[in-house]
């Protein structure tokens, strides 16, 4: 007993045979792991793998009918699995801090930022208004918020996403916890911001000797930031090891697939993926010339924002051009202009030499048959009241193509093309998974035999394995049907995998453009170098 | 390619089932909602089968036997001041309340929905429709009712008309709000890029997606209309005696409140039962139809 205790005195958190059930159904099966003092450990898995359930169980915040049905969670030798709500309240915040996922919804919008940090300090037993304020400003400064004294009195809407996440980090550290749990802390942020925040978080945690449990879906990120990786799938731990072991020498089949699919980790490992830059025809399918779009800001007396500023590029037949940029770079506005959903302030977007912004409805209608979109969110882009068959043949009905029988035939054909069973035709979108829905969206986009697909963050909302399948499908369709893609994304790793040419945008302007090899191997703009440097997992791309 | 799909197919719809199945399942899990549903079914049955259930003509007077106590042989709930059978009058009163309610709901749906869709979809129409709507909202429903009755005379139809008109503004606002929301969704934007016309988008995409709010709003208007009918009839602006109405029964009974309290309690309970049925069922239906609520349960 004595010896046992000494062996574990370095262990902060010990999860043993943890089982969590919703109703009668167990969703976690015998999950066991240890976390040493000062150690950084990542839990990696896709959605539904149970990684967030583990966190919720540790914090005693299981939702709804969820409960711990077996095993133990020892924090400093204290069992949290059967602690009362009152005991847990003393532990949360003081011993365990949480950095939540979504910085937009985790701050109270009607409360000053400083007051929210002060609140956390007061609930951790700190007394004295001046002392609390001083400590809050200190925490904000430590979390990397400049000019903290002034910003103390601002409201969350005056902070950017990255800054709000820093506020949340300050709150999570208010109680000087021994363990910090970060649940996908940066998945809502741009890559360069993500890097800054994580660098900062890592420095803070290391300086205090705090242990970090880092939950993420991104293997590359986990590899960069932690000492040990736990891979989870379907409520079980699949594999545990150091980043080098897991990423470079995965033992389990599932991990191997995950590593292969993680675009970030295989960045340079597959330099043959896009050798087709020479595939350039004489006449471009899409030609964007000096495009500009200015938005008036509502309620700010004529203040304008230049969303797109003098953007020009060409897209050759049968190739994929990616537009890369962080949020606010104007990449989506470019897509909306090309699709005729916004009118440009200046310049033109020509599809096969004609502009969709024309006043002639016949030309517009003809161009819409040539260029079709696929949107980011497969849950929002399909009308939930339609059957899959009706969704896919809607464009055919609008353009009065064929008879009822021939349309039915075409839907079956399209389902084959996107590798969905024909039986899904009579189902409704909510009965399908995210990946299947995105296949339906692609099938619909293909219904009119377009030449150009505008893919606006088309794989960003999908899990990495599903993402890889959809990217494979897109590559396959391009080879078979000679499609041209305009691929809009924030994810450079995906660009590397699918695109031939790339256009890098920042605040409405084109920063750099060229073939993927050029831009990735010899970037000329500082901003591109910064973006490339921020891709997680680059160190593991042998 | 086909092999890879076994994975993506897995998490499809284990606990969801079809749309209708899911709603039914959610309703069944809600005991209060079930109670409301059963009460509602009972009320509907009574309204439909009134002529079969009532032992007497509700207007038939028995001068020999006024103020009978409940349980008297032949008169289940007793008789009122004119010796009319209270049970028969209750049954027919529920029937007329129901008629007014259904007519009022139909009126507000038929007029409010298209206006709401138009206002939500086209900005320039919104300016016109919403301003007119604000004007209508400014008139209290009793003023509208009194005005209508002054012009056309009191009747069941006019009571329904007045109540229906009074509920159109709320209907327009709700459908307009839903339209504004759905208009921004990707599937509508996608339909535009397929060159779909405005009419097509409104009827095929927006209208079906407003259905759940429409149904829920109908369950809100219904009890309000039942109370409205009782108020109008109580004041002599609605259904005219000797036709039976819960409001008229209340109004007749108030003179003899101490001598024969049952004559007032029975129609009061009738009104309460109808409203309770719709409110409980409406709440449960709202939970069942709200997609956000179901996704939270996941």
SSE layout and pairing:
The complex is a heterodimer of chains A (542) and B (298).
Chain A (H helix, E strand, L loop, with lengths): L1 H6 L3 E12 L2 E2 L4 E6 L3 E5 L6 H9 L6 E10 L2 E2 L5 H7 L4 E4 L13 H11 L5 H14 L5 H4 L9 H13 L5 E5 L7 H18 L2 E6 L2 H7 L2 E6 L2 E6 L1 H6 L4 H9 L24 E11 L7 E12 L4 E5 L6 H8 L7 E6 L2 E2 L5 H10 E4 L13 H11 L5 H14 L16 H13 L5 E5 L7 H18 L2 E6 L2 H7 L2 E6 L2 E7 H6 L4 H9 L8
Chain B lengths: L4 H5 L9 H10 L2 H18 L1 H4 L32 H36 L1 H16 L2 H12 L3 H28 L2 H8 L4 H37 L11 H8 L8 H28 L1 H7 L1
Question: Would you give an account of this structure?
Answer:
The complex is a heterodimer of chains A (about 550) and B (about 300). Chain A starts with a helix and ends in an 8-residue tail after the last helix. Helix content of chain A is about 35%, strand content about 25%. A 6-stranded mixed beta sheet of chain A has the order 7-8-9-4-10-11, with helices on both faces. Chain A has a 6-stranded mixed beta sheet with strand order 17-18-19-14-20-21, sandwiched between helices. In chain A, strands 1, 2, 3, 5 and 6 form a 5-stranded antiparallel beta sheet that branches. In chain A, β10 (about 230-235) and β11 form a beta hairpin. Residues about 1-5 and about 265-280 of chain A have low confidence and may be disordered. Chain A has about 550 residues and is α/β, with parallel strands linked by helices. Chain B is an all-alpha fold and about 300 residues long. Chain B is about 75% helix and about 0% strand. Chain B is built from 13 helices and no strands. Chain B has helices at about 5-10, 20-30, 30-50, 50-55, 85-120, 125-140, 140-150, 155-185, 185-195, 200-235, 245-255, 260-290, 290-295. Chain B starts with a helix and ends with a helix. The interface between A and B is large, with 45 and 33 residues.
